[in-house]
Design a protein that fits this description.
- The chain has 80 residues and is mainly α.
- The chain contains three helices and two strands.
- The chain is globular, with a radius of gyration of 14 Å.
- The termini are far apart.
Length: 80
Amino acid sequence: MTWKDYIDSDQKVLAGKPKIKGTRLSVEFLIGRMADGWTEEEILENYPHLTKEALQAVYLYLLEIIQDGIIYAPMTKEAA
């Protein structure tokens, strides 16, 4: 499985934010639900057009951008 099968970006939709193909559900929105405490099951129940594989693609996408060094956690003053 590759995240590219499930996630795309279009400047005309959601200002180009990465989203699940064929939807207006952005990666940011889905991660926000999880950060708010939603479980995978709750997300899939509330968005029935979303598949478990598409949700897994969100994790793969985030893993890749972290591994590529695109995002990092901010350094603390002690670590600087």
